[in-house]
Structures are given as C-alpha cells and as structure tokens.
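Exercise 4. Each item below gives a protein and its sequence. For each, produce the structure-token representation.

Item: tRNA(Met) cytidine acetate ligase (Lysinibacillus pakistanensis).
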Amino acid sequence: MKAVGVVVEYNPFHNGHAYHLEQAKKVAQADLVIAVMSGSFLQRGEPAMIDKWTRTKMALAGGVDIVIELPYVYSTAPAADFAKGAIALLTAVGCESFAFGSEDGAIQPFLDTFELIHGHQEEYNALIKESLTTGASYPKSLHYAYKQLSQKFPATYIDLSQPNNILGFHYIEAAKTLDSDIKPMTIPRIAAGYHDALQEGASIASATGIRQALATSCKLQQVQDVLPKISFDYLANWYRQYGKFASWETFWPFLQFTLIRHTPSELNHYAEVTEGIENALIKAAKTSHSFSSFMEKIKSKRYTWTRLQRMLTHIYTGFSKEQLHNSVTPSYIRLLGMSMKGQAYLGKYKKDISLPLISRVAATKDAMLTIDIHAAEIYNLSIETGNMEQSLPKDYQTPPIRF
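Answer:
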C-alpha cells in the first residue's frame, strides 16, 4: 500500500483542504493519505479553534486515512523546526511521498531554491547578518539575503514572501537534511490565499478567513458554503456545546493572569522569551483589556506577531527553555485516528515503522509526550471554564478514533 503524507492543522477542515487531499492522492498515485496534524496549539503561536479530536474526525471524514499528532515541541516551533518534526514523522510512518500546498505550484523552483541557499550558505548567512545590523527584523533579513543571492545566481526560484512557499521550502530542507527518501510534491493553492478574507459566494476560503469571519460575528451560516457538510456539522456541534471557539481573545483572562503572576526572571525561564521583553509583557498585561490591545502594546520591529504569539504560548503552557533544548528529534508516533484502510495499513506495516506507535498514552512514559498531554490539559481547562457540564476528551482516556 502506497502512502502520501500531508502536514496539516485543519483549523478548521475546509473545501480547500478536501481539494488538496484529492490532488495529493492523485498526483502521488497513492492508496491512502497519512496526515501529521498539530495538536492543541499551532505553528503561528495560537490555540486551535477546536480541539484535536474534533479536527481528527473532520480529517477522517474528509478523506485522510491515518491522523498522527505533531508533538507540541514542533507544532509551535518556527517553520524550520516545525517542518523537521513533521517530515521526520511522515518518513518514520512509511510515507513514500509528501504533498504540500503552495502559491508557486511547481516543485522544481523549490528544489532550485534549496540548492541556491544551501549551496551558498556562508554568503547567505553573511547577508542575513549584514541586514540585521541595520535594525531589520529577522524575517526581513532573510528576505534581503535571499533576494541578493537570487539576483547573483539567476534561475527560477520561489517567492519566499508567501507563507505556504516558506513552509514548502522548509519541508524540502527537512527531507534533505534528514537524508529521507520521501519524495516532495506540491499542489497549487486555488481560489483563496493564506491571509484572504472570506468572500461572499465563494466555495473555497482560507482557514484564516474562516476564523476571522467567525471571530467577527460567530454566525456559522456564513462559512457553511466553504466547508464540507460534515465539517460544518462538527463545527456547529462544537459551538452548541461550548458557546465559543478557542482563540487568544477567548483565552485572554487566563493568559493575562499567567503573565501578571510571574516575575520577569520567571518569565525568562520559558522558551523563546529573550532580550528583556519579559518586563514589557508584564507591564502591558496589567493595562490591557483584550489580547489585541495587549499585542498592540508589545509589537515592534524586532518581534513579529507570530514570534510574540509563540512566546506567549510557551508561557501559557509552561514550556521551558530546558524542555526545548532537550527535545531533539521525535521519539514516538501518536495515533489520533484511522479509517478502515488506515487500520489495514498499520496492521500490514507496523513492524516497519521506525518509531514506537502510541495509541494508549496512559501506558507510555515519554518526556515529549508528557508535554503534549500537559498542553492539551491547559487547552481543555481554558475551554471548559464556565461550562463544566461539557467536558472535552481527556488524552489519558481517549483511544484513537476509528472511522
């Protein structure tokens, strides 16, 4: 059985994701799709709008055959480490190929871009350093270095200002660095860009646009046309149960309390907290009535919005610099759900999977898994507060979903 891998968040699963799955399977000529999916907190440093078990159900209903969890260590990491964790897991679970969505839509420019940067690594690093000395942010310095190199060695390269292209580059970089035999493929994004707002009458929308629309009005009907029916039903059922979708705005009272109860030296203990920003975090938290007003006070040229959110995620979950330092490579495969075909695949190839396959976390002791469980508990508590009659599935008690 031939498996193609995808790296996903499904926050939530929409028609664009369904198209991507269909095309990935077709292009790879695969028998099944394996998705490595972020858990409770995501790569841009924010809580998933609905929990991982609901998103797993959406994925299985949408055509995924096996869903495994991307550990918190990687799901909340900068793009390079996010990609490294995801590709390592897809390789370990036996995928022959992986397919990612991109603005570029062709694989050769990604391969050429990798060769450009890694073939001139010293010069690239020197250009980044040169830009940083001018006070430019790290992302802008990366863009500057890339632009200088691509002009010096002209060829067909990708646009590294586009979010999906950036992730795609890092997926290929990860596969090359890990010396993996997994074959990269890319599917062009259609109809909606990563940051595009929801358009009336559209059947395809970005997950960002869907979340923004729901955050503005919480009128579920406005997103009904851009989600498969079963995804919409899961989303509507969630809202009926909990009366809200997770976001930093809904979590703000808990985050505010977390920030204020710490001293600056205690905040400095957490991953990605650097350069004295801990003082600014506490000061802003004391005078902010919402997450957005808080972010407006702390954002600067030095820190991107995403970097700040990842920092805050680590503070919120208690993820320390020491834990980050000790998390080198994935140490397990956490199974969240499977279709009948996925179950048959695991039954056939389980002995060939190079990492322990975990379906019952209560029977497993692993430092990285402990971090995942803790993050899920923090997330669940934040959702359940004020609505204790509706409890979310507990990691220790929830078996993989069979679809």
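Check: The chain has a mean pLDDT of 92.
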